[in-house]
Write a structure and sequence with these properties.
Elements lengths: L5 H7 L5 H18 L2 E5 L12 E5 L6 H12 L4 E7 H6 L8 E4 L4 H14 L5 E5 L18 H8 L4 E10 L7 E6 L13 H25 L5 E6 L6 H13 L15
Parallel strand pairs: 1-7, 2-5, 2-6, 3-4, 3-5
Antiparallel strand pairs: 1-8, 6-7
Helix pairs in contact: 2-3, 5-6, 6-7
Length: about 270
């Protein structure tokens, strides 16, 4: 069996091109605002601060948008940390620029891929200034799927990295009153393995799955309320119905001496 040297391991570690990441984050923010009405986070779902530990942010995998949302959240809340994320090796080959943004390719459903995931991720989590973002469901899943089932990679990490804070993140994409959907997010309570009695792999999966499920359930309940007071708006995109309808609403507001608000939830849209 071949043993990787320190130099060989370092050569396979993901890298972050700071200037490219800054440019991509700015573009990503613009791109999200073009396609969504708003990015909202629950007031009760802000991420933990000053944990003094490396972070694993693990989230439900709702859609193709998830990595872009994570880039946005990382810049918003974890700008003082360097963020990394595993990604399917084939996808990384297709979107090669992600190699310069902290993403590292993992061969899916293979022993070699599992070992590479653990080797790189454990090395990254050796620094408290790093955060690793995971989608342990292993593929796209409906946000209503219960119970939340996770793959074993995250439990293997917990067994090896007991001083890491594992933080659940719920994400939903839903339509409210605007033509464009909302991005709704909420962080849950962190789990630190060293503070939990010894667990086996299956028990860790149950723990992480139940905490993520609770975070998603709270997010879903607040999503159904549609009460703006529950949320902090992180990013606001374009509002309005369509140019013709908005013109009619503007004319109507002028006739009635009302203020025109470009948004379907306003009084003028009735």
């Amino acid at each position: 069996m071949k043993i990787k040297t320190h130099a060989q391991t370092a050569a396979t570690m993901p890298r972050v091109a700071t200037r490219l990441l800054k440019f991509f984050a700015a573009y990503n923010r613009h791109y999200i605002s073009r396609h969504f009405h708003a990015v909202r986070i629950l007031k009760d779902g802000l991420p933990p601060t000053d944990t003094g530990r490396p972070l694993v942010i693990y989230l439900n995998h709702a859609s193709w948008w998830d990595p872009l949302v994570c880039v946005h959240l990382a810049r918003e809340f974890l700008a003082d940390r360097t963020s990394y994320a595993p990604i399917d090796a084939e996808s990384l080959q297709r979107y090669g620029f992600f190699k310069h943004l902290g993403f590292y390719g993992i061969e899916q459903r293979s022993a070699r891929g599992s070992m590479r995931f653990l080797r790189i991720t454990c090395s990254l989590l050796g620094s408290e200034r790093n955060a690793v973002w995971l989608t342990p469901q292993g593929g796209f899943r409906d946000v209503r799927e219960r119970p939340v089932q996770l793959r074993h990679g995250i439990s293997s990490l917990a067994a090896r990295m007991e001083n890491v804070a594992f933080v659940p993140l719920g994400i939903e994409y839903t339509f409210w009153k605007e033509p464009r959907p909302e991005i709704l997010v909420s962080f849950g309570q962190p789990v630190v393995p060293k503070h939990v009695p010894m667990r086996n792999s299956g028990e860790w999966l149950d723990i992480f799955g139940s905490v993520l499920e609770a975070t998603q359930d709270e997010l879903a309940a607040k999503s159904q309320r549609r009460d703006p007071a529950d949320w902090i708006v992180l990013e606001r995109g374009a509002s309005g119905i369509n140019p013709v309808y908005d013109t009619w609403r503007w004319m109507r507001s002028r006739i009635l001496s009302r203020q025109f608000v470009r948004g379907h939830g306003s009084e003028d849209s009735i």
